[in-house]
Amino acid sequence: MSDHKHKGPGPEPVSPEEVSAQERAAEHDPISAPDDLAKLLAERQELMNTLVRRQADFENYRKRVEKERQQDRHRGVESLVEHILPVLDAFDRALSGSADPAYLDYRKGFELIRRQLWEALAKQGLVRIDALGQEFNPHFHHAIERVETTEHADGIVIGEMQPGYLFHERVLRPAMVRVASAPESKSTHVSKHEH
After folding, report:
1. How far apart are the C-alpha atoms of 102 and 87, rounded to whole Å?
2. Ordered strands of the 126-128 beta sheet
3. What are phi and psi for residue 132, nearest 5 degrees?
4. How confident is the model at residue 191 (pLDDT cuts 50, 70, 90)?
5. Alpha carbon 30 to its chain's center
6. CA angle 166-131-71, nearest 5°?
7. Which of 14, 119, 159, 195 could pair covalently with 178 via S-S, beta carbons 3.0-4.6 A apart?
8. Are strands 141-148 and 175-181 parallel, antiparallel or unpaired?
9. Which pLDDT value is given to residue 19?
């Protein structure tokens, strides 16, 4: 039809194609795009930080639950081992008994059973406390008797009446021991009675 040219002071009419182009340009306004990008990057970083914290929390939770499970298992086995220790003691007493030749065949059987029992307990974490010749330690030893002697240094374990045991590095039963004591000198003894 006719070419219409705008003549006058008012705004120039805009075609629909031009309106659409202007809207697209406004959506991708170079002034607002960096602000939006910065916000998106900040949100992304915040979400990543939250994810990392959640993963760390979950890993800590998993480790704590596993440790508690292991401790519960140890407590159950520890209780069983405590009940079996008297049986182990009885085997030790039986094996330290008679030297009668007729007893030798039985002794071999007892030794085998005792060794099997000990191996089963050791696999669970039982360790015998080494007491003889060691310095007395109240955490591992229970002193039943102090023996005056000059043959051993003061405070050294010279006899074991009952063995002690550790279970996973924790004292299950202290060793009952005799401990060497330096003899009191006569001058110290006299001075004590004078006062």
Report:
1. 24
2. 126-128, 165-167, 170-173
3. -60, 130
4. very low
5. 58
6. 5
7. 159
8. parallel
9. 54
What CA–CA distance (Å, rounded) separates 122 from 124? 5
pLDDT at 194: 47
Q: What pLDDT, on the 0 to 100 scale, is given for residue 30?
A: 52
User: What is the pTM (predicted TM-score) of this model?
Assistant: 0.57
CA dihedral 183, 188, 193, 195 (to 10 degrees): -150
Q: Name the band, by pLDDT with cuts 50, 70 and 90, for residue 175.
A: very high
Burial 135-153 (b: 16+ CB within 10 A, else e): ebeeebbbbeeeeebeeee
Two tokens at 121? 């307990």
Structure tokens at 71: 């401790």
Domains within the chain, CATH numbers bracketed: 126-195 (2.30.22.10)
Q: Which residues, in sequence order, are CB contacts of 160 under 8 Å at separation 6+?
A: 131, 132, 175, 176, 177, 178
pLDDT at residue 15 tops 70: no
Question: Is 169 buried (19+), middle (13-18) or exposed (0-12) by CB count in 10 A?
Answer: exposed
How far is 157 from 160, CA to CA, in rounded Å?
8
